[in-house]
């Protein structure tokens, strides 16, 4: 059979998403979803959306949603870019800001899409190891020749966060390099650089509605940055898809942003459970770095990471495991509701038995 794939398609190693099994009902703690439903205001916006308008294209740049986000984040609409999930923003940013002749820098243990996107665009990667405390080594990054950085803060899959003051010092130390702060989990940490995009021309902050807003199923994200950076993203977006965020999505997300009190409430519930779950896992002998996200990175316990994943799956609990040398000892565990976390802990105790 003739192979119609391009050289690029044949050569890339795609990102592997967390499993979404349909064979049975699981307690799903493997994909960092928020265990609580979306804001009632967002639900009302979805139910009240006028379907008769769907014969028209949405606003090309999601102007209404940009305005709502800008007001909430303390910037101007021209400082906001909207997309189909933060992953699309990240994808477009590689095309907008990086070239083959200058490497992009990121940590060796971080969101694995960075390496996938760099390979897709043929951009060299400069990879910096984490510190022994699982923290991103900003000093080593600053000393690494590159054109710019991708910094997941809090980091994935470790959950370790970097305080805002440290990030600002880093940004100031590399004024001629672009710093892309991937803040997908920031609402569970509270050290966002959102307002700093008005101070630093070399800063782009990327956020998502998938986590703290409980809207993973609707696929929307956004970026905050200088007018020049936003125009760069828009230029690339308009070469691929001029209408990325659909009208229903924009209406629901705008309602969610307007009800940030609900988002903050559910984020606090997650953070409280995160600390309780971490204490219990530490008591059970696991190494668990302090997390600023809605998940925990647990390993080096009395059972290997792969075995723990498999045994928990048998008991109907899904966690995330990577069979790679750097990550194989650990599992990433999404923080669920108190009831879900209790079942997880009971299952682990039975396994350790």
Description:
- The protein is of the alpha/beta class and 353 residues long.
- It is built from twelve helices and eleven strands.
- A seven-stranded mixed beta sheet has the order 2-8-7-6-5-3-4, with helices on both faces. The chain has a two-stranded parallel ribbon with strand order 1-10. The protein has a two-stranded antiparallel sheet with strand order 9-11.
- Helix 4 (85-97) crosses helix 5 (113-120).
- The protein is globular and about 55 Å long.
- The N and C termini lie far apart (53 Å).
- The mean pLDDT is 96.
What is this structure, in a nutshell?
Helix content is 37%, strand content 13%.
Class derived from helix and strand content: alpha/beta
- Widest beta sheet: strand line-up: 2-8-7-6-5-3-4
Number of strands: 11
- The averaged pLDDT comes out at 96
Total of helices: 12
């Amino acid at each position: 059979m003739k192979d119609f794939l391009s050289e690029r398609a044949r050569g890339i190693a795609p990102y592997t998403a967390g499993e979404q099994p349909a064979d049975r009902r699981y307690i799903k703690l493997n994909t960092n979803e928020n265990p609580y439903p979306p804001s009632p205001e967002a639900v009302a916006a979805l139910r009240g959306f006028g379907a008769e308008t769907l014969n028209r294209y949405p606003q090309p740049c999601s102007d209404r949603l940009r305005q709502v986000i800008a007001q909430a984040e303390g910037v101007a609409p021209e400082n906001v870019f909207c997309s189909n999930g933060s992953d699309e923003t990240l994808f477009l940013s590689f095309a907008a800001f990086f070239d083959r002749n200058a490497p992009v820098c990121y940590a060796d243990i971080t969101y694995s899409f960075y390496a996938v996107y760099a390979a897709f665009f043929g951009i060299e990667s400069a990879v910096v190891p984490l510190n022994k405390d699982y923290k991103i080594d900003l000093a080593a990054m600053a000393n690494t020749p590159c054109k710019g950085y991708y910094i997941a803060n809090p980091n994935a899959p470790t959950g370790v966060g970097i305080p805002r003051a440290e990030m600002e010092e880093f940004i100031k130390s590399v004024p001629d390099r672009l710093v892309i702060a991937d803040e997908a989990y920031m609402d569970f940490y509270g050290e966002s650089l959102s307002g700093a995009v008005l101070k630093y021309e070399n800063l782009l902050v990327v956020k998502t509605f998938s986590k703290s807003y409980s809207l993973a199923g609707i696929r929307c994200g956004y970026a905050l940055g200088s007018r020049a950076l936003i125009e760069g993203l828009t230029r690339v977006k308009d070469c691929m898809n001029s209408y990325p965020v659909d009208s229903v999505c924009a209406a629901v997300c705008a309602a969610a942003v307007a009800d940030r009190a609900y988002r903050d409430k559910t984020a606090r519930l997650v953070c409280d459970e995160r600390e309780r779950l971490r204490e219990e896992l530490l008591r059970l002998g696991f190494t668990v770095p302090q997390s600023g996200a809605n998940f925990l990175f647990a390993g080096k316990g009395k059972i290997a990471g792969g075995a723990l994943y498999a045994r928990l799956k048998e008991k109907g609990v899904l966690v995330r495991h990577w069979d790679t040398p750097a990550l194989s000892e650990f599992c990433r565990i999404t923080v669920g509701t108190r009831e879900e976390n209790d079942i997880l802990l009971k299952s682990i105790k039975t396994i350790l038995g």
